[in-house]
């Protein structure tokens, strides 16, 4: 698409390989219309990006149009020429708009086709292969997902899924300002809270943490498979695949998944598990803070240490197959396993540590929050205990 050739409602822009389509649509039973991108050859029309989420075309705007100006501003106009949405770009030479087979809508300009704007920098409720969730430091962009309000209203809903950078980075699902779920830190093969992100031949999950940015992305390893991950209006982050010959999207996995994915289900220093009759137990060396409430299966108060630790004689208890605690109160350094253990032991405020990829040392300070136990997979956490506790089992079922 070039200047002087606007796209009217009823027309569309198709990617070179015919995988994605940009056009106007009315979601669900809505009367209002939006500009969006969807999978072109999927029978169940699946929208993956919406431009004018907060400014729909009304029933009276039957002649809405997408226009590219000579200086490189992409604008969506209603029937009377009022601008509903734009890319706010300008001063471009010979601008061109393209929809790529990745689903990325790209605006370039100049003889070198310099990037002016791209839809991948402005996600709505869906991440596609090659998209990022996280921070682009060089351009000061925070990319995150926000749910639709409903099936017929793509305006921003109450849920968001974004990179939390306090402490050690992790993905967090929010309902307004309330934390609902977190992924745990990246461990080299996936996030600690998702053991099924290990190499599987279908997806390649990637994590970048350097001077250019801090973000998560994925690639699809089979060219015949379509994939997306969507944050729905109920706060579920769901990964779907569509294979050749399919008639519907197949759910690959979703979060939150069960009670133990709910943030801090067992309070501080508790472990959520589906392996026992009770969903919450205390970490070894800890006891319920409110025994009466705990006996009634009210776990929000969590657990406290049975014996205060003594910095000079403390040791560590291994806790295996777990989702690592909330990393808001954690730090990360490059140390060998022995160096990590010694550093934590010599720092009296360090309450636990973990090591992965042989040299990435995570250390926690304060309560250990939102730990869950898996039947298979997960990581190893080493929890600081007083010497007198190291031979005792003080978990409460």
TrEMBL record:
Residues 1-120 form the Bulb-type lectin domain. SMART domains: B_lectin, PAN_AP. The keyword Disulfide bond applies. Pfam families: B_lectin (PF01453), PAN_2 (PF08276), S_locus_glycop (PF00954). Residues 311-386 form the Apple domain. InterPro entries: Bulb-type_lectin_dom (IPR001480), Bulb-type_lectin_dom_sf (IPR036426), Pan_app (IPR003609), S_locus_glycoprot_dom (IPR000858), SLSG/EP1 (IPR035446). One of its GO terms (biological process) is response to other organism. CDD domains: B_lectin, PAN_AP_plant. Keywords: Disulfide bond, Signal. It comes from the Eukaryota. Gene3D superfamilies: Bulb-type lectin domain. The keyword Signal applies. SUPFAM superfamilies: alpha-D-mannose-specific plant lectins. Involved in sporophytic self-incompatibility system (the inability of flowering plants to achieve self-fertilization). This is Bulb-type lectin domain-containing protein.
